[in-house]
Specification:
Layout: H1 21-30, H2 41-48, H3 53-80, H4 84-112, H5 116-120, H6 126-141, H7 144-151, H8 153-169, H9 179-184, H10 189-207, H11 210-236
């Protein structure tokens, strides 16, 4: 089994991408919430291949709908960027969420028996809906640094997970049931994505006032908590109680 640890003492400057000061501050504000996802039983079962197909299917379908909201939030942020390069980067981030990760979902859909129509008809879990609402409302009403901070935990945690798994288990066995998923998030190209995202987070933080930076740190922490809750809702196959 690939053993992951939520090692909060591991220096952030050991990453394959730069972690600027404001990103450091966001992680410090998160406390135990940073890294908690790595210790979730869903993640451990995904890593060692013991995760049952029903739970993985539940996760994948909910994630496909989450990525639509991530793309919407990225697109909203792009409309608020005065710099054309920033505007284009967030447009590309929206496209990446829909196209590149969508291809992964489509491939597993063929294997597991769901398609785009089934995803459209899906009832969002309470956790998924709340996370989406958090991202969209922050993108609409928050400052640029707040909106970007709310988006950051999702890609950061997945890239971090991919790199931790690579260190823990080495090459993914060909017969691993989730080999494509594991391979995707250890792709070195995501390091460039993170460099670009965290550089923008830092720049937006520098342009903001203290109150906006405090709200941005809070938005980051809330998204981190929702990331853990996303694994949880898939592990328990969450339903609405009424």
């Amino acid at each position: 089994m690939a053993t992951l640890t939520a090692d909060l003492t591991e220096p952030l400057d050991t990453r394959a991408f730069d972690v600027p000061p404001f990103a450091h501050a966001c992680v410090e504000a998160a406390g135990d919430a940073w890294g908690a996802s790595f210790d979730h039983p869903f993640v451990h079962a995904l890593a060692d291949g013991s995760l049952d197909a029903e739970r993985f299917t539940f996760y994948q379908m909910q994630d496909a709908r989450y990525l639509e909201a991530f793309a919407d939030a990225s697109a909203l942020i792009s409309t608020r960027c005065p710099d054309p390069d920033d505007k284009l980067w967030f447009i590309d981030a929206a496209r990446l969420a829909l196209v590149v990760e969508g291809e992964l979902h489509a491939g597993y859909g063929e294997q597991l028996g769901y398609d785009a129509e089934a995803i459209r008809a899906l009832t969002l879990t309470p956790n998924n809906r709340a996370y989406q609402n958090h991202m969209i409302s922050t993108a609409e009403r928050g400052t640029l640094v707040e909106a970007t901070a709310a988006l950051t935990p999702c890609p950061w945690l997945y890239v971090e997970l991919g790199q931790r798994l690579e260190r823990a288990m080495g090459e993914v066995p060909d017969d691993h049931p989730y080999a494509e998923w594991l391979a995707m998030y250890r792709d070195p190209e995501f390091n460039e994505y993170m460099d670009n995202l965290l550089e923008r987070l830092q720049r937006f933080a520098e342009a903001a006032d203290d109150a906006a930076r405090a709200r941005a740190r809070e938005a980051f922490v809330v998204s981190l908590r929702y990331e853990w809750m996303f694994w949880e809702q898939a592990w328990t196959q969450q339903e609405w109680p009424v």
